Amino acid sequence: MSIKFEKVNYTYSLNTPFKYVALKEIDLDITPNKITAIIGATGSGKSTLVQHLNALLIPTGGTVTVFERMISSLEKPKKLKDLRKKVGLVFQFPEYQLFEETVEKDICFGPKNFNMEDAEKRALDCLKLVSLDPNIKQKSPLDLSGGQKRRVAIAGILAMDPDVLVLDEPTAGLDPKGAKDMMNLFQSINQTMKKTIIIVTHDMEHVLNYCDEVVVMDKGRVRGKYLVSDFFKDTSFLKELNILPPSVIRFKEELNACGFSIDEKVEDIQSLANAIVKVVL
After folding, report:
1. Model confidence over 54-110: pLDDT tens digits?
2. Distance (Å, rounded) from C-alpha 28 to C-alpha 64?
3. Is 175 helix (H, G, I), strand (E, B) or coil?
4. pTM, whole model, 2 decimals?
5. Phi, then psi, of 272 in degrees rounded to 5
6. Alpha carbons 70 and 264: distance in angstroms, whole number
7. C-alpha to C-alpha distance for 90 and 51, rounded to whole angstroms
8. 65 exposure class (CB count in 10 Å sphere: 0-12, 13-18, 19+)
9. Rounded Cα distance, 159 and 190, in Å
């Protein structure tokens, strides 16, 4: 169940004076059954990249292969329904995918469209899964807070039980506890259901604490794919990309600059505290 980009280019407003090249010669393999972060500055091509995964965007050059289904610039894709059931995409702005009269109808839309049984039960289960009160199911999605809208959008995708879950800034608009709960949910889905999770994010704390691999986008190109444990070791590369490392990494670097000798493998608060105790005592 591989996901592969080969020489993928994408240009918005092609053949017009307003054309903009968003992706350039992308070669990338996404590791199955892992949590992969897609990071980079605003405008680096992150959202454009992930919208190719279920053919919302079609490459203007190259090919994207998802579950042995190839999407090419050379032909218009057909019969995309099965692909879009397997790859669920949650947009950065939840308003883009909330359109029904009630929360329940919105979450049921995907399962019913794919002729899945027990759509109403799926909706109820997924509301609970994203920590929303089932009593809101008869409310209009437009009457919800920003954080609630995001949870409903995620619930609507989860109700379709996709093999790949793609999330564009999934914790935006959530308070710190809500963001932590949501990331714990994605981690649980990955570990218990063996689903591939792809997360577009600016939050390096989430990358460090929840992701297995990280893909770095820069000006429409892939600068590299790394294990998270390796990525944060290269502080000069992070500075080049204007990426602020997670707080525990920064604190560790500051301690080492002051004469401590903290092992580079230390990546969480408890391990850092234990290492400090060993040095001090």
Report:
1. 999 999 999 999 988 899 987 788 888 889 889 999 988 888 888 899 999 999 999
2. 9
3. coil
4. 0.89
5. -65, -40
6. 41
7. 10
8. middle
9. 15
